[in-house]
Every structure is written in C-alpha cells, then in structure tokens.
Write a structure and sequence with these properties.
The complex is a heterodimer of chains A (about 110) and B (about 120).
Chain A lengths: L3 E3 L2 E5 L4 E6 L6 E7 L6 E7 L4 E3 L4 E5 L4 E6 L8 E8 L7 E2 L3 E6 L1
Parallel strand pairs in A: 2-11
Antiparallel strand pairs in A: 1-3, 3-8, 4-5, 4-9, 5-6, 7-8, 9-10, 9-11
Chain B lengths: L3 E4 L2 E4 L5 E7 L6 E7 L5 E8 L5 E2 L8 E7 L2 E6 L8 E8 L8 E3 L3 E5 L1
Parallel strand pairs in B: 2-11
Antiparallel strand pairs in B: 1-3, 3-8, 4-5, 4-9, 5-6, 7-8, 9-10, 9-11
Chain lengths: ~110, ~120
C-alpha cells in the first residue's frame, strides 16, 4: 500500500525550515527519501532502517518512528536548490523494491 | 560513488516495435536491480525486481511477456518493452541496490523517456 505524504505542497522563503511527513499503514523495514527535479531521476537523500540505523547527506535529517510507521524529513535553512518534489519510499523487507508516496512539491522562493 | 547509468536517455518508436533499455551500475555490484515507471506528474511505480542470474519478479498488473527483463551480470539489467503501444509511453527508471552496503540503498539511473507513436 502506498505511503501517505504530507503536505502535498510547500512554498518557502529561502532560509526557512520545512518538515515533510510520510505515513504507512503497514509495518516498515526501511524508509528512503529522494528529491526529484522536473525531468530528472530521483536523487538519494537518506535511508532509515528499522532499529535506528540511518545514512544520508550531512545537511539532511530525518526521523523514523517504527511503532507509528511514520517518518519525517527535516529541511533546515532551505536553499533555492532544495526546490523539487520529495518522495518517500518504503519497504517491508531489506531486498524489496520501493513503494513510493505521491510526493511533496517544495518551492523555495528567494 | 554509486553511479547508475541508463541507455538510451530517450527513444521515440513506432507502435508495434520493441525497445530495449539498459541499466548499469558503474562503480558497484548490484545483485538486485529494480525497474520503475513514472507517468507525468505522478509518483514512481515499481514494475519488477531483477535479480542477477534468476527470473525477474513482476508486480501485480505488470505483464511479464510485455516487459522482458534480463539481469545477466552484477552490473547490467535490461528491460525490453515488446510490441510497444502509445499507452506504454512513460519515463522508465531503474535503480540498483548496493548490496555491498548493509543499508541496501537504492540508487537511480537518469531514466529513459519512451514515446510510442
């Protein structure tokens, strides 16, 4: 089942912070976060595993609440380059393909 | 590191022809690769899981005889869209799972835009 992302869209001024949420109705093994710009492939941002391990870019932070089957991506001091569509992808097992949410459109204005 | 390439980046073909798309992991070995499809303004949908040396596993609703997948080596998977029709026009993206990492991150190729006339 497709995870639910919120909000659907966010408009920020450069330097502002944003939080994007991802919620699943089934037990999760991992949550993956990507950013996609128009016409391009998704770029890996972060992976969070059941049990607490995580790996990602230095300037990106995220949380994973296994009990609630929810993850949040935190974007601080946003830059113009952060604009794009953010997707969370979830798996129920380590070798599974990703089930993506519908995406959150982020627009950063100068 | 963790670079995935796809070829071609775009293709335009006539209805009824077959199109082959290659996905390569350039600097790591990928026992598992995945194929996704993305229609305009929509999310990515998993089509199939490709495992080196074995048959691909297809998601429900994806025709295995139409979308042929071959994963002949640890760095190459191919997707062949057979007898393509206009409704197959889409953005096809592969990802490779870094099985050398305990995290099993998936890295995406740049995608192939298929237009069927």
């Amino acid at each position: 089942q497709q995870p639910v992302q919120s909000p659907q869209a966010v408009i920020l001024r450069e330097g502002e912070d944003a939080v994007i949420n991802c919620s699943s109705s089934k037990a999760l093994y991992s949550v993956h976060w990507y950013r996609q710009k128009h016409g391009e492939a998704p770029v890996f941002l972060m992976i969070l595993l059941k049990g607490g391990e995580q790996k990602g870019h230095e300037k990106i932070s995220a949380s994973f609440n296994e009990k609630k089957q929810q993850s949040s991506l935190y974007l601080t001091a946003s830059q113009l380059s952060y604009s794009g569509t953010y997707f969370c992808g979830t798996t129920g097992g380590g070798a599974d393909g990703l089930t993506f949410g519908k995406g959150t459109h982020l627009i950063i204005q100068p | 590191g963790a670079v995935v390439s796809q070829h071609p980046s775009w293709v335009i073909c006539k209805s009824g022809t077959s199109v082959k798309i290659e996905c390569r992991s350039l600097d790591f070995q990928a026992t598992t690769m995945f194929w996704y499809r993305q229609f305009p303004k929509q999310s990515l949908m998993l089509m199939a899981t490709s495992n080196e040396g074995s048959k691909a596993t297809y998601e429900q609703g994806v025709e295995k005889d139409k979308f042929l997948i071959n994963h002949a080596s640890l760095t190459l998977s191919t997707l062949t869209v057979t007898s393509a029709h206009p409704e197959d026009s889409s953005f096809y993206i592969c990802s490779a799972s870094n099985t050398g990492s305990s995290y099993n991150e998936q890295f995406f190729g740049p995608g192939t835009r298929l237009t069927v006339l």
